[in-house]
Design a protein that fits this description.
With about 250 residues, this protein is α+β, with helices and mostly antiparallel strands. Helix content is about 45%, strand content about 25%. It binds guanosine-5'-triphosphate.
Length: about 250
């Protein structure tokens, strides 16, 4: 079994802020959003967590090993450096999809994303050390087979982007609907999925489903770990084995 700790990061009352007193320049919003993501990635990352940018106004972090005090410090650090604040809601479950659903529901109960009075909510109880194990997380690192030869060096850049995004859309939906997993595009042709305990046959099914749906061929490395960094690094090593052996699914 896995025990995934997810933290939903939500910008407080950001929609109104983007148009107050007048619509703000789009380049400034894009710069703010990408810098905020970079800082959160580093803040959670130094504690071995991962953050995924998803919609930028809402981000999803995998935070096994990041405790309550860490969350409070991260929230404070953002408040001190940005014109916006963040709410953080944490939940834990064997299923990553359930953990995020619980974290979301708790934040929604506290107030709307556009409620002026809901600022810097800090919700949920991160795992205590004695509740954690070395294989609480299962992470899968998917990659498009020979994306460079098939797409990047062959098609115009926008057509390549469409192929990769279609594969991502197909995989994220399949992994969520069939396996309670949360999959995130992380750049290039790479997708990282936070999974419950899934076996090799389930990953083969996912790869077949994406090929049937979009014609894009994937491979995947999978590993377990106590933190996102541990499991994620193991998954990268397993993916290297796929490359060396020409296989499509490898477990560390
Ligand atoms: N975020 C992230 N991106 C990566 C990683 N490895 C590769 N990429 C991205 O993926 C792009 C393609 O690189 P590869 O996946 O190595 O190349 P490929 O042509 O698909 O070749 P094979 O994966 O060996 O089939 C790179 O330009 C990067 O943008 C990784 O570990 N993390």
């Amino acid at each position: 079994m896995t025990n995934t700790q997810i933290t939903l990061v939500q910008l407080d009352n950001y929609g109104p802020w983007t148009v107050t007193p007048n619509p703000r320049r789009e380049v400034d919003l894009q710069t703010l959003q990408s810098r905020l993501y970079a800082d959160l990635s580093q803040l959670f990352g130094t504690r071995d967590g991962y953050v995924f940018f998803t919609r930028f106004d809402n981000m999803v972090a995998v935070t096994n090993g990041v405790d309550a005090e860490d969350h409070a410090r991260i929230q404070e650090s953002i408040r001190n450096r940005y014109p916006v604040t963040v709410s953080l809601s944490t939940a834990t479950a064997p299923s990553p999809a359930d953990a995020l659903a619980h974290a979301t529901a708790r934040l929604q109960e506290e107030g709307s994303a556009q409620d002026e009075d809901r600022t810097e909510a800090l919700l949920g109880a991160p795992l205590e050390d004695d509740e954690r194990t070395d294989d609480d997380l299962q992470i899968a690192h998917f990659d498009v087979n020979d994306a460079t030869g098939e797409y990047t060096d062959e098609l115009d850049a926008f057509s390549t982007f469409i192929h990769i995004e279609q594969a991502y859309a197909s995989l994220m939906r399949h992994m969520h609907e069939e396996h309670d997993s949360l999959s995130f595009f992380v750049g290039g042709d790479n997708i990282i999925a936070i999974c419950p305990a899934m076996d090799a046959a389930a990953y083969r099914d996912a790869i077949d489903a994406v090929r049937d749906d979009t014609g894009v061929d994937l491979k995947v490395g999978v590993a377990r770990g106590a933190t996102a960094h541990d499991a994620g690094m193991g998954a990268k090593h397993a993916l290297e084995v796929c490359r060396e052996e020409g296989t499509v699914v490898e477990f560390e």
